[in-house]
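User: structure tokens for this one?
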Amino acid sequence: MFRTTHRPDPPGGPACSHDAPQGRAGEPARVRRNLALPTVSVFRPVASLFLGRAVESSRAGPGAELSDVRISVVTPGELGASQTEAWREMRAHTEAPANPFMEPEFTLAVGRVRAPARVAVLWEGGEPAGFFPHERGPLGRGRAIGLGVSDCQGAVLRPGLGIDPRELLRACSLSAWEFDNLEAGQKLFEPDAADAFGSPVIEVATGYAAYEEQLRERSPRFLRTTLAKERELGRRAGGVRFVLDERDPAALRTLMSWKSAQYRGTGRRDRFSQRWTSTLVRQLHESRAAGCRGTLSVLYAGDRPVAAHFGLRSRTVLSCWFPAYDPGFASFSPGLIL
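Assistant:
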């Protein structure tokens, strides 16, 4: 995974721009070099985070011929079924983790709430050879699709497809492309990254019991303390239960209210104050697509929700996104119990 902003080099040399080190709530920084905190994601291999710099591009009309590659630019809703299936096939054959943010369903969802959303479709030999989801703003300023809430970004390309990033931007009528969580292995944009960080991973391929045993060996005090707090919370509240995939919209509203309060209390911008973000999350909660669907997990003390997490999952990856808890139960560390 990578964090970066991709935009044109000025005549005097490359500029640098990225999100300030405030995680998801930070405002994009403009033309400065700095480090950002890594995003926590549930991936198998350790991915990387890059802070990006600029790439030069001249303006051109949407769609272009690049050597043997033809590019057309459409809205996500204009993608046909054969194109989205080709997108899924390309992702299925990549060595990268099956990150739900890189699936077509995420781009389609963003397209329903973000008018500037676009997808560059790369064609070779009459067949789809790649997809570049992005948003196009004023003066050709480009952004990663869903920038600000998207935790994995980049292009989906057929292996071996040769294309220059500046040519791609020109074909999309972009003077810049800003990104803050570029996927590891995005060779097209990695040269314009300013830095890289590893992403924490929780590996549970061998089952939860094996993971707990590893945790017991590596962090015995942490595990003992957390389990003791869980037992105490259960005694006081009349039992504790965990729901992995809660479908009740009221539980999602509760999580969003907790998270909004947390943002405001820590002086960060409230993501859910933006209508498009809250609408996107609600729509993804309703999605049942195998490659990208919202999963709301809730910890209940008695009948009361005390902690929750909303993330996106594919068949093999659950990406951490919006965790929060009821501050009234902070002494029990319900977020850790969850």
